[in-house]
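User: I need a structural model of VWA domain-containing protein from Stygiobacter electus for a docking pre-check later this week. Nothing fancy, just the predicted structure tokens so I can convert them on my end. Input:
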Amino acid sequence: MLGDVTFAYPWAFILLVFVAVLAYWYWKNKNTITANFNFSSLQFFGKVPITLKEKLIHLPAILTLIGLVFLIIAAARPQSFSSGENIYTEGIDIAMVLDISGSMLAEDFKPNRLEAAKKVTEEFINGRTVDQIGLVIFSGDSFTQCPLTIDYSVLKNLLREIKMGMIEDGTAIGNAIANGVNRLKDSKAKSKVMILLTDGVNNAGQIDPITAAQIAAKFGIRIYSIGIGTMGEAPYPFQTPFGIRYQMVPVEIDENLLKQISAITGGKYFRATNNKKLAQIYNEIDKMEKTRVEVTSYRHAKELYFWWAFLGMSLILSQVIISKTYLKRIP
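Assistant: Understood. Predicted structure tokens for VWA domain-containing protein:
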């Protein structure tokens, strides 16, 4: 190993002995390889300057030998390893479960709860590298906006398309959890996580939230629940014949239920009261999950052999061109 570079096939360096033998043979026979002329006296050539061609007579051999060395290095398959790169030894599959009910338009968050939640969710996705992430949305019912994927660009595009009104209004927390379980239950990952964000009280759906949480626990799924909303009242926009009017509405989050859901599954409950706090919660979840299965490793290789092979072939090709043109020998 050299610095942060190692070789997959170090035995290939045995071939350097062959190059050394060739170099020794050339050095011993260099006088017989080049053209010789017999003269009765060398006095005539005493003041003849050495030409550039004469100085470069051994260049093709040197280029060939160096080219062979580079090709042998390529054959040894050099690899570079990124120092401190995060590698997930177990892997994490994550279901983001997002409330899109009408109350998520309240503007105690800027510009509103839904858009704030979408923004921090996208930032959370940007912080992952190899995890599969899926997106579930819910209101009066629940459906999968995006199945588990590592195509984060598609995932983020589908996240941006979310808006209130895609589902009949209501807050079906039990259905949402059940849908998230369906996304994760067949996962082969050793760490399965659901991040449930809501601003209300369960008032719709056919599945009891506690029952859904117990099912999640049986499948080894941890649920981090987030209650989003300020304390007390929040401004809510109402459409009237005279345009948008704001009215203060009470913030009602069933924190006891969310705490039970997280406790049953081995997760944790958080309360977000503003944009900054919401971002901090997602950062905390991000760190907690990475801490579980993340290690610093050098085992993610970047192949480097191509450039060595390219240089080797270029040098050998160069010596052929030079030998056939500028340094072409007299027959």
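Before docking, keep this in mind: The domain at 86-297 is CATH 3.40.50.410 (Rossmann fold).
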